[in-house]
Amino acid sequence: INFYGCQESQIASILRDAQYLKALSTNHATTLESLRIHCSVFPDLVHVSQLLSPLTNLHELSFNYVELRSNPRVWPTAGATGLVHAVQGMKKMTRLRLTGHQLTDDHISCLVPNLGELRSLNLDRDPTRTNEADAAGAAGAGALTDQALQAIGQSCPNLQYLSLCLQEQITSSGLKAILKGCQLRELRIEHCPLLQ
What's the rounded Cα separation, in Å, for the pair 134 and 138? Predict the structure, then answer.
């Protein structure tokens, strides 16, 4: 299932309908293998949880640049935590893309021990939120550090693709942990100044 740009379209009403989301995730909990939600707006965290939590058989999840209509500023912190809790039970996950979220080392440390089958992981930061943090004098706020990369290296031995664009706090020490623990074939790193 793909939802893209669901802000003002008719599909947006589906994303706001708690009964529909519950039915979608409950009726397809054992059969749905791929879910992609991009540039969409949810009414609140409850809707996100209702959609994702029952989908324990997902093999692929893309959840990118998603906001909460009730309070767009809540999403970077509370939304990331809710998202991690919802994804933790998806032990069959092989492809995970969580771009545009302010995930922390703690989020990653909680998430990856349950995702040993993961083959592809994208944790790119949102450039607009990165610029907002820089303007507020909090450069690197919400960026992952080597601690997150060590957790990935220890928990994801099958990982073949990793993207870490705009993760401004990672260093060569974290990359060594990834290379030691994972079977990477492709590593995408852009705008990571401590690796220059």
Answer: 5
Residue 180 DSSP one-character state:
H
Question: For 81-124, how does the pLDDT look when each residue is reduced to its tens digit (9 = 90+)?
Answer: 777 878 888 899 999 998 887 788 999 999 999 999 999 999 99
Crossing angle of the two packed helices 146-155 and 172-181, in degrees rounded to 10 = 0
In 4-160, where does DSSP find H-type helix?
10-16, 18-27, 45-52, 80-87, 105-111, 127-135, 146-155
| pLDDT tens, residue by residue, 21-70 | 667 667 777 788 888 877 777 666 666 777 777 888 889 988 877 766 65
pTM value is 0.81
Q: How many residues does the chain have?
A: 196
What is the C-alpha to C-alpha distance for residues 157 and 39, in angstroms, rounded to an integer?
30
Give whole-number Cα distances, 91 to 44, 46, 115, 117, in Å: 25, 22, 5, 7
Residue 93, φ and ψ in degrees, nearest 5: -60, 130
User: Is 79 within 8 Å of 87 (Cβ atoms)?
Assistant: no
Question: Cα dist. 58→41, 106, 112, 118, 174 in Å?
Answer: 21, 23, 15, 12, 28
H runs (alpha helix) in 28-171: 45-52, 80-87, 105-111, 127-135, 146-155
Q: Say yes or no to pLDDT of 73 above 70.
A: no
